[in-house]
Amino acid sequence: MIQANVTYALAKKFSLYTGVFTNKMDFGPSIGAIGKFKIKNGIVIVNNRHTFTKEYISALLLLTEYRPPINDKLNLYIRLQILSETNFEEAKRNIQLIRLGIAFEDYQLGLGTTFDQFGSLPIKRNNHGLFFRVQF
Length: 136
What we know:
With 136 residues, the protein is an all-beta fold. The protein is built from no helices and 10 strands. The protein has one domain (2-134). Helices cover 0% and strands 75% of the residues.
């Protein structure tokens, strides 16, 4: 999947975008809105996209990251990311990503799990384990 978008910030916390969406089988225009909200020790991002290809698809992404301090050098690290895509007849894809660990400087490490479902059956591709992340 490839998306190319132009974004216009209507306000500090709210943007609209338009562009094109393509994958192996389809190509078409898309529009969407993004909301960004800072919370104490974290952030919440909501992105709603509508794609007008042979098959209309609506997608909603929720991403939240929370880092409350443990001490002067360490923070608790919690990340929840949810993506839901539908054509309003069936679920196309649903992903839930959960991370729980510690953060220090630009590094995060801990336990993670991802639940990934495709289609209405659904086909499931889940994984669980350790994660390590570096922010640049």
